[in-house]
Amino acid sequence: MQQESLDIKARSEMITAHLVDWRRHLHRYPELSFQEKNTSAFIQAILKQIGVTDIQTGVAGFGVVATISGGSGPVIGLRADLDALPITESTGVQFASEHPGIMHACGHDAHMAMLLGAAKLLVEDKKANRLYGTIKLLFQPAEESADEHGLTGAPYVLKSGVINDIESAIALHVCPWRYAGDIQVNKGPSMANIDNFTLVIHGKGSHGGYPHQGHDPIWMSSFVLQGMYSLISRKMNPLEVGTISVGEIKSGTTANVIPDTVTIIGTLRSYTNDVRNQLIQELESIAKVVEPLSGSYDLEIEHGEPALDNDPAITDLITSVAKEIYPSMTIFEEPFGMGGEDFGHITKEIPGAMFFLGCAKENIKESNLHNPDFMINEDALPIGVALLTECAHRLTERS
């Protein structure tokens, strides 16, 4: 395996043209969460072309699980996501989205291409009797958006049972704040718990010229907002990670009528369950300020993804493999931020880790995730393939 790890870089670079072609095709034809029918069909077609024979389809909707086995040994998983975002692309590239209002603005096109590349190399290794254990490649639908039940793709994958036998899992995510050739890793909580809230404050409407005849919910909301924005600085332990943000306020329809209600919609982010629970409890306490002001309220919490909790041992393995294959690689060790990642559902059940793969070009203005101008440096593609493939080998070699 030592010799294989030394040439995995060259092998990955040899398939760069395939990686670019696959990624650009997927970028050109993006599909939204739970609608990835053609994306799934393309993935299946490429898997068959490269010699994968065990392909399970219809996983959690349009998901695909490709199994490559070299015999007895551990079963491990590699995961990529299929879906795009409801964003109108403004990159101007030749392979820009042909689906109006839909774009791969989070790099899932690159994730799929790199997992296909890993599949190609792993099939070659199987044929050469260099593969031990079993590797399941999960092409997961609906990472970005939840359905009417409030669930994204990962919970449905877990419920399906198709990865119940996986002993450990790895995923990657492209990273526009790191250059291609660098990676970012972190042990433990690395992306946030997500809880979205809707708070409706009920008052009593009245004519704007006679405010004393009603109970103004907009006035009440001013106290609620002050409480929300002071929550982190005055109620939470400053050594803990957590935040609250308001993204939408809805009330009233005209200048001279005080409305009956105000609706405040926002999000809570945290790294631990203790902070998650405290944020929810504190929000409830803040909402109660309207009661002595002659108001009432309804508070609804929508629980989203759990925190991405990276297994320390698997993170160490990723770091070790990266240093071996790319001795000059810069490896940053810090959390990935307060965004959400539904791979957290999987790491909650199975030891796993995600690493962030630099995809920025030097001397080029950073294009951020979920933005209409987002674009990756395709030099990152073979690097991701090499790391995924070699990490898969190392995990299946474990006794």
Automatic annotation (TrEMBL):
- Top-level taxon in the UniProt lineage: Bacteria
* Xref: InterPro entries: Amidohydrolase (IPR017439), Bact_exopeptidase_dim_dom (IPR036264), Peptidase_M20 (IPR002933), Peptidase_M20_dimer (IPR011650)
**Residues annotated for Mn(2+) 2 binding in this entry:** C106, H108, E144, H370
Record note on cofactor: The Mn(2+) ion enhances activity.
Looking at the record, the residues that make up the Peptidase M20 dimerisation domain are 193-289
Pfam families xrefs: M20_dimer, Peptidase_M20
Annotated GO molecular function terms are:
metal ion binding; N-acetyldiaminopimelate deacetylase activity
Q: Which GO terms describe its biological process?
A: diaminopimelate biosynthetic process
Q: Which residues are recorded as binding Mn(2+) 1?
A: H173
Q: Which UniProt keywords apply?
A: Hydrolase, Manganese, Metal-binding
Q: Tell me which positions the record assigns to the signal sequence.
A: none
Q: Does the keyword Hydrolase apply?
A: yes
Tagged with keyword Hydrolase: yes
Obligatory cofactor(s) = Mn(2+)
What NCBIfam families does UniProt report for this protein, alphabetically? amidohydrolases
Record-given protein name: Amidohydrolase
Which species is this UniProt entry from? Aquibacillus koreensis
